[in-house]
Write a structure and sequence with these properties.
The protein has about 350 residues and is of the alpha/beta class. About 35% of the residues lie in helices and about 15% in strands. It starts with about 50 loop residues before the first helix and ends with a helix. The structure holds phosphoric acid mono(formamide)ester (CP).
C-alpha cells in the first residue's frame, strides 16, 4: 500500500477519495471500529506500508464474514445499492471471480469490463476508461498489464481503486489472502523465525513481490525468506531485494532446493514461470520445467510445511500433491473470497 498512491491502512498521510478529503486518517493505534477502519474509502495498490493493525482488522473481518456465510448460512445485504466495477485488462479467473462473488455475496452489483468488448478496443486511454467507471460505480478493481498503471489510475479518480495486479509489479490483494492463509495454516504460535521459501519466478511473480513486502512489515525480524530460482533470469528484482534488506528483512537466494532449505522451510510458496512476460520463446523454454513439486519432494518437507501457490499452475506442482494435507493452494484460493469480501466491505465502509 503506498501512501503516495492514496492507499494507506498504514495510517500515514494518504490521498483519500476526494469527497472525504476532509476526514483525518485514523491512527493505526486506534481500536478497530466497524464504522471507520484504516481501510475506509482508500485505494489499495501496494502492500508497501500496510500496518499490522490494518491486517488484523481485515483478517478479523474475513473470519467474521466466513462464519456468517459458512456456519450461519446468512444472506448478507451490506452492499445493497453499491456497485463494483471490475476492469480486467489481463486474463484472470480467481481474482476477477472472487471479487465478483465477494460483492454479490454482500448483495451488491457488479460491472464487468474486458478489453475486447469495451471502448478499450477503440483505443480509449486507461484514465478515460477509469474516469468513466467512476461515474457508475462505488469502487473499481483494476488489473492491467503495465507496472505502475494501477497507481496512475487510482490518482485519476475520486472513488477507491483496488489493484488486481499491475504487470510484473504487485498483486496486493493476493498478498493479503496469502498472509491470511499462512496464519490459518501454520501451527500457532508461529515459529520464532518463520522460513518462507519462494520457488519459481521471483522476477515476474508479482505475488512474490507483494507478499515479500507484506511479510517484511507483518513479521518484521521473525521471518526469513529464501528465493529459489533455478534460472538466473528469474531472480528477485535487485532493487526490490535491496529495498527489503534495507527494511531489515532476512533473505537469501538459491539456485536449487538445497537440503537445508527444504528441511527448514515452513511455507513453500510456488509460482509459475510466467510465459506471457518473456520477450523470447527460447528464454521461456530454458526456464520452463526446471522445478516441480512432486510426492518425492513432499517427503522431504516438514510435516507442518504449508505448500502454497497463487494459481494458475502449469506443471510446477504435480497433481498427485493435491491430496497431501499440506497442499493448501485450493484453501488459499477459497480464502481469497473472504479476504476480498472483507476488503471491499472495509473500503466501502459497509461492514
Ligand atoms: N492468483 C491469481 O491472480 O489468479 P488469476 O490470474 O486467475 O486471477
Amino acid at each position: 500500500m503506498s501512501a503516495s498512491s492514496g492507499a494507506s491502512p498504514s495510517g500515514s498521510p494518504a490521498k483519500r477519495s476526494k469527497p472525504h478529503a476532509q476526514q483525518a486518517a485514523p491512527s493505526p493505534k486506534a481500536p478497530p471500529s466497524s464504522l471507520s477502519t484504516p481501510w475506509a474509502r482508500h485505494s489499495f495498490i501496494s502492500t508497501e506500508n500496510v500496518s499490522v493493525e490494518a491486517c488484523e482488522v481485515l483478517f478479523a473481518k474475513a473470519d467474521e464474514l466466513r462464519d456468517k456465510i459458512e456456519n450461519r448460512k446468512q444472506v448478507l445485504k451490506n452492499a445493497e445499492g453499491k456497485i463494483l466495477a471490475l476492469c480486467f485488462l489481463e486474463p484472470s479467473t480467481r481474482t476477477m471471480c472472487s471479487f465478483s462473488a465477494a460483492m454479490q455475496r454482500m448483495g451488491g452489483g457488479v460491472l464487468n469490463i474486458t478489453p475486447s468488448d469495451s471502448s478499450v478496443a477503440k483505443g480509449e486511454t486507461l484514465q478515460d476508461t477509469i474516469k468513466c467507471l467512476s461515474c457508475y460505480a462505488d469502487a473499481i478493481v483494476l488489473r492491467h498489464p503495465v507496472k505502475g498503471s494501477t497507481k496512475l489510475a487510482a490518482e485519476a479518480v475520486d472513488i477507491p481503486l483496488i489493484s488486481a495486479g499491475d504487470g510484473v509489479g504487485e498483486h496486493p490483494t493476493q498478498a493479503l489472502l496469502d498472509l491470511y492463509t499462512i496464519l490459518r495454516e501454520q501451527p500457532s504460535p508461529l515459529p520464532e523465525t518463520l522460513h518462507v521459501t519462494f520457488l519459481g519466478d521471483a522476477k515476474n511473480g508479482r505475488t512474490v513481490h507483494s507478499l515479500a513486502r507484506l511479510l517484511t512489515t507483518y513479521l518484521s525480524k521473525r521471518v526469513h525468506i529464501s528465493y529459489v530460482c533455478p534460472v538466473q533470469s528469474l531472480r528477485m528484482p535487485r532493487e526490490l531485494f535491496d529495498e527489503l534488506s534495507r527494511l531489515g528483512l532476512s533473505q537469501s537466494e538459491h539456485d536449487s532446493l538445497d537440503a537445508d532449505v527444504v528441511q527448514s522451510t515452513d511455507v513453500l510458496y510456488v509460482t509459475r514461470v510466467q510465459k506471457e512476460r518473456f520477450e523470447s520463446a527460447d528464454d521461456y523454454l530454458k526456464a520452463k520445467g526446471t522445478f516441480v513439486v512432486n510426492p518425492a519432494l513432499m517427503t522431504r518437507l516438514k510435516p507442518t510445511c504449508t505448500v502454497m501457490h497463487p494459481l494458475p499452475r502449469v506443471d510446477e506442482i504435480d497433481v498427485q500433491v493435491d491430496s497431501d494435507p499440506r497442499a493448501a493452494y485450493f484453501r488459499q484460493m477459497k480464502n481469497g473470497l473472504y479476504v476480498r469480501m472483507a476488503l471491499l466491505g472495509l473500503v466501502l465502509d459497509i461492514v
